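Tutorial sheet, problem 5. The two components below are modelled jointly, 585 residues in total.
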Amino acid sequence: MSATDMTVKSTAGTHDVAAAPRSHPGRWIAAAALVVLCVGWVVSLWSNQNIDHATIADFLFDGRILQGVLLTVGLTACSMLLATALAVALAVMRLSANPVLRVVSWGYTWFFRGTPLLVQIVFWGYLGLLYEKISLGIPFTSVHFFSANTNTIVTPFVAGLLALGMNEAAYASEIVRAGLLSVDHGQVEAAHSLGMSPAYTLRRIIVPQAMRVIIPPMGNETISMLKNTALLQLIAVPELYTRASWISAQNLSQVELLIVASAWYLVLTSVLSVPQYYLERRYGRGAGRSLPATPWQQARHTVTRIRTRVAQVAHTHPRNARTEADS
Amino acid sequence: MTPSPLVEARNVRKHFGAHHVLKGIDLEVRRGEVMCLLGPSGSGKSTFLRCINHLEKVDGGRIYVDGELMGYEEHASRKGHAREMKPKQIAAQRRSIGMVFQRFNLFPHLTALENITEAPIGVARQSRPDARSRGMELLRRVGLTDHAGAYPAHLSGGQQQRVAIARALAMEPKLMLFDEPTSALDPELVGDVLSVMRDLARSGMTMIVVTHEIGFAREVADQVVFMDDGIVVESGAPSRVIDDPQHERTRAFLDSVL
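Model answer (structure tokens):
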């Protein structure tokens, strides 16, 4: 009995040495140090006498703040949609054989990337001072199909949307262009040889492959856009940051309301990474030999791994198991 | 009267900058015929093949497929002048010409079956079930029924090239162009692709094949064309061009590859 035990143990021992994963003590130490630092920081915030925690709690779910959150989300979504549509058009124009389209695209990017976003926001917000009326007609004649006061069309929301969307389009067009250029030219030739038109080739063959390259930086841009909406405070768009600043102007709790706003921005950016993850998976099909596991699959995998590890430990220490069973 | 040739090239010329790639190519391919284009790299044979379906623009001369001038329309008033067609017209012309590339060029985001059915559904407007059943039939023909749902990255080079052949056949072309279809393959995978091409030739498909596989050319080709430095050096039956070459350049090339 004890002899068989010995042989089993010795072979198991040699196998363990051969297959044991490297241990990483440095990682554990670094992780522990970081946890201590983070806890220390949170405690310092919590115990800080200059921060009124009750005010933060009061305003975190205040109706005005929640309305601001809603508008921030809406503005981000609308301006990213506008920016993406414009960006695809600009990128295709830039890669076109038509020199007029190429120059128009280049000029647009040059202008909107070359001037500060803050200045563009102010210009859109005060467009009524530059042009009192907006009208559609035949230039240099008295024919007008349509005419309206600038301030009734370009409301603060519209001004913010145009400023953010059109500025972002200049940056996003370069991301889209990089994505389109990343697709091998052989793909275009194969599509053309099958009789696909240039537009069909772009839509069904090139863009789906370019998405893999486009999505990660566009996720970045979306997060950036979410926080840039705060700049619209300058033209009184009642989004999250504007609302927080209005409240703090009344109750003088500037720090508390900045914390409330920041907390919401953090929550929103965290939520945004979820659709990005699944979009990346969707367009990653066929790119590698296998798709990476989803967080759910990873969690399940980790649980299985811990279980087998526990089972292994029980197996390599049969004496412990036996004593437990005995007692 | 003999039936008109399927492919007719008249004095085809092409430059890349100062480099003269095609210096006046005259060729005829009859219906149901297999023509193999041989020649050293840089001789212009791939460029000529790509001119046939207008992937490359010719600088002079005319290429007719089934009596239709490829890629250009004759100028109405100025005789001998031609103008490039609109992209849509060119796309329509290409539908009847299948092409197989050296590097396969399968669409990596689509499965093998989707690669085959994309153009029939999206371009030829076939119904989805029809296109799929035809696609499966084509996959059976190239021996890949089990791989219908596989993405190209999961297939070997030989399998990818056979899917590419099936994809080209799905548009029911009257002419198939092969641009060095086995040059990017591991030696042990070449045989499968060549046997698919052999079957296709036997079924009566008109084929133009740019290749370095002299054995395949000798066995399958009805006509072998040897090109060098942008001209046709000699052409004729394989027994004449490969086994009894008349020109010194042909002889030197065949000695170097055999």
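Marking note: The interface with chain A takes residues 53, 55, 87-88, 91-95, 97-99, 101, 103, 105-111, 118-119, 122-124, 151-154, 164, 167-168, 171, 177 of chain B (CB under 8 Å). Full credit if you identified this.
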